[in-house]
Amino acid sequence: MDPSQDLLSAGNSYPFSWTAQGTALRESFLYLSLYLRQNWADYYDALQRVRTHGDRERWLLFYLIGVEAVARQAADTTRALLELFEADAERVRALGRSAGSTLRIFELLRRRILLTIPRAAEMMGLSQSTVTAALRRMMELGIVLEITGRERARQFVYPRQMEILNEGIQG
């Protein structure tokens, strides 16, 4: 077994995180394993120095630099998402009378990223025709993309949100 596996697994995110107010977040947003994979040579060198020279400080410094880098990326991602959500919500509000149900579906899409019409209707307590119309309006605004190309069992995605979430993960 590779001795780095214990520490590599320690770099994975915890099942929950805490906010500054002391409340638990539902999803962790600090994933150190990608940072460790992207910096594998430095990581392994620091780990080797722990074994050969007892140099825990060097490994700890490497690890803390990783935490800082990942935290900065999470903050940047959060800012970009908030800006996107506000800009797109404003575009939906500009629809006028049809903005109400469209905003409700938009808020659901923000949380789910991928939607089907039946599931969205069920979750929001709206008719499938109302959900279909809302998704069509968001497609016209360029907010939503239908990804199956089918007439039935269509799936809709919030592509810009996915792009922002995927930035920087290609190691």
Structure description:
By secondary structure, the chain is mainly α. The chain has eight helices and five strands, in the order αββααααβααββα. The protein has helices at 4-10, 32-38, 40-53, 56-93, 99-112, 117-124, 128-140, 159-166; strands spanning 17-18, 24-25, 114-116, 145-146, 155-157. The strands form two sheets. Strands 3-5-4 form a three-stranded antiparallel β-sheet. It has a two-stranded antiparallel sheet with strand order 1-2. α3 packs antiparallel against α4, α4 (56-93) runs antiparallel to α8 and α6 (117-124) packs across α7 (128-140). The longest helix has 38 residues, at 56-93. It is elongated, with a radius of gyration of 21 Å. The two termini are 24 Å apart.
